[in-house]
Amino acid sequence: MNYPKVDFLYLNEQDMIAAGVKDMARCIDTMEEMFRLLKAGDYRMGGANGNSHGCMMEFPKESPFPNMPVDGPDRRFMAMPAYLGGKFDMAGVKWYGSNMENKKKGLPRSILMLTLNDKDTGAPLAYMSANILSAYRTGAVPGVGIKHFAHPDSSAIGIIGPGVMSKTILAAAMAVRPGIKTIKIKGSSPSSKSAKEFARFTEETYPSISNIEIVGTEEEAVRDCDIICIATSSPTGNIEDYPYIKESWIKPGALFCCPAAARFDDDFILHRARTIADNTMLYEAWEEEMDFPAYETIPIPAVHCMDLITEGRMKASQIDDLGDILTGKIPTHRKDNEIIVYSIGGMPVEDVAWGTVVYKNALKQGIGTRLNLWDQPALA
Q1: CA dihedral in degrees (162, 351, 355, 108; nearest 10)?
Q2: Is the separation of the CB atoms in 133 and 92 below 8 Å?
Q3: Where does 99-215 show beta strands of DSSP type E?
Q4: Which InterPro entries does the protein's record reference (predicted)?
Q5: Which of 19, 137, 326, 335 has the most CB atoms around its CB within 10 Å?
Q6: Which of these, 34, 67, 4, lies nearest to 353 by C-alpha position?
Q7: In DSSP terms, which residues pair with 257 in a beta bridge?
Q8: pTM exceeds 0.85 for this model
Q9: Facing residues of 113 across strands?
Q10: Could you read off the pLDDT of 348-376 as tens digits, one per residue?
Q11: Which residues contact 3 (CB under 8 A, 6 or more apart)?
């Protein structure tokens, strides 16, 4: 960059697609590299311990001000800053607004943008559409787990919550376990629009999946499956409302990918399941930031484990960190046919990692619109 002039690259959604944001195999490799940097400590996120998911702004349940929004399902704004070192060497922040009412307007629940910044000056390098980027990195993180933990001959996957997140997790699963032939889809009901649409999507996108079943219960979605993805938009607050999985339904050696609400019996989690977290320190940050029990606010299983640790019922050593596994510090499998509950919290370093790769692709290919911030700053 030729300072003091500052230009940056604007990438709309079609630009992002042209620059390769949907390359799931490369996204999985990028996430794996990011996790190795995380374990080495070559990163920063927000919060007191440098591992915060982000800064969330919510609205009150009631307000005397007529223009102020009020609380509603998935209604929030979130800023998610991070720096990632290594070959990425990039700072950035993802900013989004979320509101379930968006769907009535033909909009996605969340609308996301990512800004990439020079790590030294803070000057913007890119401003990009991040809905697809965020969806793909969200799918790729379970993909890293499926690559390393799912049985190599996995043939059946269960989907509980057939939304956008599950589509990208399925894409990741097919990228690393192409032998999958059966999919079981559990929506809000067997006749739900989302379940039927997901079945159509699967049939059109993955012709190698020969057996597509829409099921009515969590039990049906779990039984005989090697990989289970739980990605519902469940309301938080009442733990009893979270999707419940009974141990007796689970196939030996099954892998659960849990980027959203999920509930297992404590006895199973404490004594027989193997808990793996994408970044243990993220869950420690949530435990510090949220009112106890944090699981009522953040419904991911590893958050419940942190609550159990706080209560003195579980030891911190019972949670394995993905980075420790990827770097060989602990074994990929501790025993044969272990059942793994893999928690995925979502981190801004993931957005910065995949955003940097797509940005560099766009530069090489001449994709996007170059915008000028200033030639000479008026207030330097």
Answers
A1: 40
A2: no
A3: 110-117, 124-129, 156-160, 182-186, 211-215
A4: NAD(P)-bd_dom_sf, ODC_Mu_crystall, ODC_N
A5: 137
A6: 34
A7: 229, 342
A8: yes
A9: 95, 129
A10: 999 999 999 999 999 999 999 999 999 99
A11: 121, 123
Domain boundaries, the chain: 7-134+349-371, 139-348
Whose tokens are 């890119």? That residue is 126
- Spatial contact of 75 and 236, defined as CB atoms under 8 Å apart: no
For the chain, the farthest-separated pair of C-alpha atoms sits apart, in whole angstroms, at: 67
Quick one: angle between helices 193-205 and 164-176, nearest 10?
30
Fold held by 7-134+349-371: ornithine cyclodeaminase, domain 1 (3.30.1780)
Six-digit token pair at 112? 């996301």
Two tokens at 171?
A: 């894409």
Q: What is the DSSP letter of 208?
A: T
DSSP 43-71: EEEBSTTS-B--EEE---SS-SSTTS---
d(C-alpha 185, C-alpha 194), whole Å: 10
pLDDT computed for residue 373 by the predictor:
98
Q: What angle do CA 98, 102, 108 make, to 5 degrees?
A: 75
User: Rounded distance, CA 75 to CA 94, Å?
Assistant: 17
Helix (H) or strand (E) holding 264: strand 263-264
Contacts 24+ apart (CB under 8 A), 312-319: 313/266, 313/270, 314/269, 314/270, 316/280, 318/270, 318/275, 319/275, 319/276, 319/277, 319/280, 319/283
Q: Which of 153, 157, 151, 96 is nearest to 129 (CA)?
A: 96
Buried b (16+ CB within 10 A) or exposed e, 200-214: ebbeeebeebeebeb
Phi-psi domain of 41 (left: phi exceeds 0; alpha: psi -120 through 50; beta: other): left
Report the SS3 class of residue 230: strand
Cβ atoms of residues 10 and 363 within 8 Å: no
